[in-house]
C-alpha cells in the first residue's frame, strides 16, 4: 500500500486504539478541526459536567458550596488533583485556579525575590507575549527597568532554543527563570529536566509555562524538582473557552508566602473564621486568590475523565504518529510549493506542526474555505494540530490533499495575505 494513498490512512485508523474516542466529542460534519492547540473541542462529558453544576446551582442555591456531587468549595482542589498526573505533580502540588497569565503573576510575585546584584529574570525571545508582559510588569513593580532586567535568551535561527544557551545565561545576577515547556510557534519541547537541574544547582528558582504541553506530552515536574509551573486548560485539555487555569508548586516550596494573597488561599477549615490574620494553606492551594469560577471549572472535570481513562502516555504516542504522518505527507505531496517545516522533526516536538510559507495568512483562509481549521501565527506560520483524542489519520490525509489542491490551483490568491482579529 502506498503511503500517500487514502487506504493507507484508513489502515492506520483501523489499528488506532483511540479511534473510538472521536464519538466522545462534538465534531462538525465535513469540518476537519486542526486547531486543538488553540481551543480544544467540546466533549459530551465536559458538557455533562457543566450542566451538572448548573443544576447544583438551580437546586442548592448557596448550599451548592458544600452539597452535590461536586461541592464548589473543594472544586479547585479536586480538579487540581485530577490534573496532577498530567504534569507529574503530587496531588496537593496542583491547584486549578486563575488563568495562565494571572498564575504567572502570582508565581512571579512569590518566587521573584531580587536582592543585592541578583535582580534579573531570565526568559527567552520566543516566549509568548503575555508572559513577557507579565514579567516586565513584575520587574517594574519592584522598581527595576524591565528592558535591562528581563534577559531574553536568543534563538539560533528564529525557531528553536538551545538548552546550552539557556544554561549559559543562568548567571549570578539571575533571580528567577521562566520558560515555556513547548514553544507556541515551532512546537519545540525544551528539556525541562536538564534545565531544572541546572537552575537547581545554581540556586535559581525555575518555572515553566505548560500551555502547549499539558495534555499533549508527559511531564515529571515533581521528580525533576521544578519550583513551579502554570498552564491553561482550554488548549489540549479541552476545558472550554476561558476555562480555569492550573498551577503547580513543588512541595519543597510549601509554606512560601504567596506574593498575591486572597482569602481562597487560606486553609479550608479556617477560611470562614474571617480573621484578618491570614492562615495560608500549606500546599499549592495557598496560591489561589479569590472565589473560584465554578462554571468555568465544571467542563474540565468531564474533559479530564477522558485523559484519566486513556492515560497521557497513549495520547502522546498517537500524537507523535499523527504528526509524523503529517510531516511525511507534506514532504511528499507539497514538495516544491515553498513550505518549510518549522517544527523539530525528531521527538522534541509537541502536539502541533508549524508550516512556514510566505503566503501563510491567505493559505489559512483558503484552508478554512475548504473545511480545514488551521491556526495562523504571524508573520508566516500555519499551525496544524492533529489531536490524538479526536483526529484521525484520515483527517491528516484529507488536510494534506486539500492543501495540495489549494497550492496547485493557487486558490489562496483570492484572499488577502492578512490575519483576522483573532489569529
Ligand atoms: C495560550 C497561552 C497563554 C494565554 O494566557 P491566558 O492567560 O490563558 O490568556 C499564555 N502563554 C502561552 C505560552 C500560551 O500558549
Structure description:
- With 423 residues, this protein is α/β, with parallel strands linked by helices.
- It has two domains: 6-30 and 312-414, Aspartate Aminotransferase, domain 1 (Alpha-Beta Complex), CATH 3.90.1150; 48-309, Aspartate Aminotransferase, domain 2, CATH 3.40.640.10.
- Helix content is 37%, strand content 11%.
- It has helices at residues 6-15, 44-60, 75-87, 100-111, 129-141, 146-149, 163-168, 192-202, 221-224, 294-310, 312-333, 360-369, 393-408, and strands at residues 32-33, 94-96, 120-124, 150-153, 174-180, 206-209, 228-231, 246-249, 340-341, 353-356, 372-373, 375-377, 381-384.
- A seven-stranded mixed beta sheet has the order 2-8-7-6-5-3-4, with helices on both faces. Strands 9-10-13-12 form a four-stranded antiparallel beta sheet, covered by helices on one side. It has a two-stranded parallel ribbon with strand order 1-11.
- Strand 12 (375-377) and strand 13 form a beta hairpin.
- The protein is globular.
- The two termini are 38 Å apart.
- The model has no long low-confidence stretch (mean pLDDT 97).
- Pyridoxal-5'-phosphate is lined by residues 99-101, 128, 130-131, 180, 184, 209, 211-212, 232.
- Pyridoxal-5'-phosphate binds at residues 99-101, 128, 130-131, 180, 184, 209, 211-212, 232.
Summary, kept brief:
With 423 residues, this protein is α/β, with parallel strands linked by helices.
Amino acid at each position: 500500500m502506498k503511503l500517500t494513498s487514502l487506504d493507507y490512512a484508513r489502515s492506520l485508523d483501523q489499528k488506532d486504539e483511540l479511534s473510538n474516542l472521536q464519538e466522545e466529542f462534538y465534531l462538525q460534519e465535513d469540518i476537519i478541526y486542526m486547531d486543538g492547540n488553540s481551543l480544544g473541542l467540546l466533549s459530551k462529558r465536559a458538557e455533562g459536567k457543566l450542566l451538572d453544576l448548573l443544576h447544583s446551582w438551580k437546586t442548592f442555591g448557596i448550599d451548592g458550596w458544600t452539597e452535590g456531587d461536586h461541592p464548589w468549595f473543594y472544586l479547585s482542589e479536586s480538579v487540581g488533583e485530577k490534573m496532577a498526573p498530567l504534569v507529574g505533580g503530587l496531588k496537593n502540588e496542583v491547584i486549578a485556579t486563575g488563568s495562565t497569565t494571572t498564575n504567572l503573576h502570582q508565581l512571579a510575585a512569590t518566587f521573584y525575590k531580587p536582592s543585592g546584584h541578583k535582580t534579573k529574570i531570565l526568559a527567552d525571545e520566543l516566549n509568548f507575549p503575555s508572559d513577557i508582559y507579565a514579567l516586565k510588569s513584575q520587574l517594574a513593580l519592584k522598581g527595576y527597568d524591565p528592558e535591562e532586567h528581563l534577559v531574553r535568551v536568543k534563538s539560533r535561527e528564529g525557531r528553536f532554543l538551545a538548552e546550552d544557551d539557556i544554561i549559559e545565561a543562568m548567571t549570578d545576577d539571575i533571580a528567577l527563570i521562566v520558560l515555556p515547556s513547548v514553544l507556541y510557534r515551532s512546537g519545540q519541547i525544551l528539556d525541562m529536566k536538564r534545565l531544572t537541574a541546572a537552575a537547581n544547582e545554581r540556586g535559581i528558582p525555575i518555572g515553566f509555562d505548560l500551555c502547549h504541553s499539558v495534555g499533549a506530552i508527559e511531564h515529571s515536574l515533581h521528580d525533576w524538582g521544578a519550583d513551579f509551573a502554570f498552564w491553561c486548560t482550554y488548549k489540549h485539555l479541552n476545558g472550554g473557552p476561558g476555562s480555569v487555569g492550573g498551577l503547580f508548586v513543588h512541595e519543597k516550596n510549601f509554606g512560601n508566602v504567596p506574593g498575591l494573597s486572597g482569602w481562597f488561599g487560606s486553609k479550608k477549615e479556617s477560611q470562614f473564621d474571617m480573621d484578618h490574620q491570614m492562615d495560608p494553606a500549606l500546599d499549592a492551594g495557598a496560591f489561589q486568590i479569590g472565589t473560584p469560577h465554578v462554571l468555568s471549572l465544571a467542563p474540565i472535570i468531564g474533559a479530564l475523565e477522558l485523559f484519566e481513562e486513556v492515560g497521557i502516555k497513549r495520547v502522546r504516542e498517537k500524537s507523535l504518529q499523527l504528526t509524523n504522518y503529517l510531516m511525511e505527507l507534506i514532504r511528499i505531496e507539497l514538495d516544491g510549493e515553498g513550505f518549510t517545516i518549522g517544527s523539530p522533526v525528531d521527538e522534541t516536538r509537541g502536539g502541533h506542526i508549524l508550516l512556514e510559507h510566505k503566503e501563510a495568512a491567505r493559505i489559512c483562509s483558503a484552508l478554512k474555505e475548504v473545511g480545514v481549521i488551521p491556526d495562523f501565527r504571524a508573520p508566516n506560520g500555519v499551525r496544524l494540530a492533529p489531536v490524538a483524542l479526536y483526529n484521525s489519520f484520515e483527517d491528516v490525509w484529507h488536510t494534506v490533499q486539500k492543501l495540495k489542491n489549494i497550492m496547485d490551483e493557487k486558490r489562496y490568491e483570492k484572499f488577502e495575505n492578512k490575519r483576522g482579529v483573532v489569529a
